[in-house]
Amino acid sequence: MKKTIVRAALTTTMLFSMVLGQNVITNAAAVTPIAAATPTATAKPTATPVPIMRDNLSKYGLKKDLELPVTVTAGGLSYTLEKFMIYDFKSKDAQNLVKKYDYDSFSAMVSNPMYLIWTKITIINNSNKIVKRTLDDRKEKWTLTLQRFGQIDEIWPKANVKKLNNKEAYYYYNLKPGEQLSTYQAYLYDKDINYFVIRLYHDGGFDEKFVVKSPE
Questions:
Q1: Could you tell me the CA-to-CA distances from 209 to 47, 72, 172, 192 in Å, in that order?
Q2: pLDDT per residue over 147-189, tens digit each?
Q3: 80 with 121: CB under 8 angstroms?
Q4: Nearest Cα to 156, choosing from 120, 109, 123, 107?
Q5: Which sign does the torsion angle of CA 52, 57, 61, 62 carry?
Q6: 145 closest CA partner among 83, 189, 98
Q7: Helix/strand/coil for 61
Q8: How far apart are CA 159 and CA 115, in angstroms?
Q9: pTM of this prediction?
Q10: Residues 16-53 as b or e (16 or more Cβ within 10 Å = b)
């Protein structure tokens, strides 16, 4: 009788242990492992574009009515002034340009310059004729004026005298219909600056735009 009771107790204990073990395994299988957190990449800040400096007119107390670039058209010719920088003639910037392109320190109209003016331009020939400035035809088609009777005077880069349609600093150009040229041009000036107007004369046509309007 005692043996029967002991066996029954052992059997019950074994069954309970098996059931308990199964539950442990089942519960273990039901647990979803937690995935390791993936580091989040830090987004790089978007670089702010640096604005293009197209002129320094504010340095001379001038308030613009038009922002560069400014385009005038006449007789099938398009002239766009993209950059207009005024430098004290004795400054490092001005003298570097004089030396690089072999500019004279005087012109037909300006013998003792106060300023060297450096411009970037684009000219487009939309006509059905050749547009040129050559040894035989040196008359300029556009003018830049900063005060009444104060037209600035162009100077020519002797370093590029034999280079046609030079893109660094032009001396001569020759554009067939549909052709264009982006280049640089220098001027001398020796007066105060009151306003700023661009004028274009070509093939009987005329156009003008005031970048800085004349005072009332």
A1: 35, 7, 25, 20
A2: 987 669 999 999 999 999 999 999 999 999 999 999 999 999 9
A3: yes
A4: 107
A5: negative
A6: 189
A7: coil
A8: 21
A9: 0.77
A10: eeeeeeeeeeeeeeeeeeeeeeeeeeeeeeeeeeeeee
